[in-house]
Design brief:
Elements lengths: L14 E5 L4 H16 L4 E5 L4 H6 L3 E4 L8 H6 L11 H14 L2 H18 L5 E6 L6 H4 L10 H4 E8 L23 H18 L1 H13 L14 H4 L3 E4 L16 E3 L33 H9 L15 E6 L11 H7 L6 E6 L20 E4 L4 H5 L4 E4 L3 H10 L3 E3 L6 H11 L2 E3 L7 H13 L1 H15 L3 H15 L3 H7 L1
Parallel strand pairs: 1-2, 1-4, 2-3, 4-5, 5-6, 6-7, 8-9, 8-11, 9-10, 11-12, 12-13
């Protein structure tokens, strides 16, 4: 790792304006980046949902509120779905509804909020320019690149220096080597595979996504864009408009492509222990600490003591057999514990050599909140809300529903995983877990007790999973994510790539 490039005196630094899709899984990485940028001396502003205001302000960013239909509360959205029968739909149908309701419907309001944010920053200091740091699925800034005019009091060339995209999911950028996102076909970049991929794009996905493509352009016109987004929906326009694309993650987890965009870079992980605690690493920049506070659970010392057993010598009189620790979490979207947590508790209920730590994922949650009426096994420990990194520091297997962030927590901590997820990008993540060799994909979102037990036992018995995930962990330790974001902002500040030229000629 290299030390971050120094930046100019504070009076010459541009503001950093962060925009992000409102789902917790998208916001969390951007909030960690905001924390690091604040520590590094950047003045950061975060246009976000009011449900996450506290977390955004705790990162040191100035909170700017989204409003009306753009102000999405993701927990409320999934507790009260947008249409009747939503939960009973196939995951692929739910994804289309989510893209419609979460990304496209609020686009004009997001654009209006973005313009207001520019005006707010302009008012604070007319001499300070702005760098846009955009998470890929905040569609509300796309009009900027397709000819939407700014109000007369906001001159683009006097305000925006450039833009940086941060991707917090597998990259939804079209490639000759891949089928459209979500299609159940193995990776195949051969000549025959590319023919198959092209047919899926042009014959299947184009037709299936036609109403989303049309809706995107309708919403863009409503926001004032003068040109259409001339591509099939989810081909990558929301990435490729930016000066640089920083992909969170490591190369070993992603399918190799022959046609990566020239401005695409892997940026490592925001998950995991801070760089100073990684073996052999030297901290290159101040970074947020994610689990320095000891978790306040009565059983936490038991977990610490179990981990310490691995450091004792065989001759030590205190040495007893170390229990295998299985950490299981349901995630923040598909939060029904019956899907994954309950089967995991049942799968190992009678194992005295196993300790199961179940994380519900929301403050003050408990199993009864979800109508779960089971006797918690004696070898299970339940947490309402707990840092994944804190728990995974003691884990042998990581069971989760394949959110991109959850996968990266496993990689960052070198813990092999068992995944069971569908919906959003979870199917893509699950396939990559199996393809990269870092865990077992159960191929469904609601596995049986037997499936969970079989997947976990397979991981415990095959050391190859641990070896491979630690290879990817090493990749993550070699990339300073926060330092890379900082360096890209400095580069934009120095080169001033001019959003005006890109918006007129894109």
């Amino acid at each position: 790792m290299t030390n971050p490039e120094p930046i100019q005196a504070e009076t010459h630094r541009p503001f950093v304006l962060i925009v992000c899709h409102s789902l917790t899984g998208h916001l969390s990485p951007l909030i960690r980046i905001a924390t690091a940028l604040h520590t590094l001396g950047w003045d950061t502003f975060f246009l976000g949902p009011t449900a996450h205001r506290r977390g955004i302000e705790a990162a040191g960013a100035v909170f700017l509120p989204l409003r009306d239909d753009a102000d999405l509360d993701d927990k409320a959205y999934y507790e009260n779905p947008p249409c009747p029968g939503y939960a009973a739909l196939h995951w692929s149908e739910r994804v289309l509804i989510d893209l419609h309701k979460q990304c496209l419907d609020p686009l004009p309001t997001q654009w209006s909020c973005f313009v207001d944010a520019l005006r707010e920053l302009r008012t604070r200091d007319p001499e300070r320019k702005i760098i846009l740091l955009a998470e890929a699925f905040f569609y509300g800034i796309l009009p900027l690149f397709y000819g939407a005019p700014l109000p007369d009091d906001l001159r683009l060339e006097e305000i925006l220096l450039g833009s940086l995209c941060v991707s917090v999911t597998v990259p939804a950028i079209r490639s000759v080597d891949l089928p459209p996102v979500g299609y159940p076909f193995p990776f195949d970049s051969s000549a025959d595979g590319r023919v198959r991929n092209a047919r899926l794009w042009e014959w299947s996905w184009e037709r299936k996504a036609s109403y989303l493509t049309a809706l995107l352009n309708a919403k863009m016109r409503e926001a004032g864009a003068h040109r259409p987004v001339d591509e099939i929906f989810l081909s990558g326009a929301n990435y490729l408009c930016h000066d640089t694309i920083l992909q969170l993650g490591v190369p070993g987890f992603e399918y190799p492509r022959s046609d990566w965009p020239p401005n695409f870079k892997f940026a490592g992980l925001v998950q995991g222990p801070p760089p100073s605690s990684k073996p052999g690493a030297q901290p290159s920049s101040p970074t947020p600490t994610h689990h320095t506070k000891t978790p306040n659970f009565s059983w936490w010392p038991e977990l610490i003591s179990n981990t310490a057993l691995s450091t004792l010598l065989p001759s030590d009189p205190c040495r007893v057999a170390k229990k295998k620790v299985i950490v299981v979490a349901q995630g923040t979207v598909e939060i029904n514990p019956y899907d994954l947590i309950v089967p995991t508790l049942h799968a190992f209920a009678n194992r005295s050599d196993v300790l199961v730590v179940a994380i519900l994922g929301w403050k003050d949650a408990n199993l009864s909140n979800y109508g779960v009426d089971i006797e918690v096994p004696p070898n299970a420990r339940i947490a309402d809300y707990l840092s994944y990194d804190a728990a995974l520091a003691h884990a042998d297997v990581w069971v989760h529903n394949a959110g991109f962030g959850a996968v990266n927590h496993g990689i960052a901590n070198g813990v092999p995983m068992v995944v069971a997820g569908e919906g959003m990008d979870k199917t893509e993540n699950s396939r990559r877990v199996a393809w990269s060799g870092i865990g077992v994909d159960l191929g469904c979102a609601k596995p049986s007790v037997e499936q969970v037990r079989g997947g976990v036992e397979r991981v415990l018995e095959d050391e190859g999973f641990t070896k491979r995930v630690r290879e990817l962990q090493k990749q993550s330790q070699e990339i300073d994510c926060f330092g890379m974001v900082h360096s890209e902002l400095v580069r934009i500040m120095k080169t001033q790539p001019s959003i005006k030229q890109r918006s007129l000629g894109f």
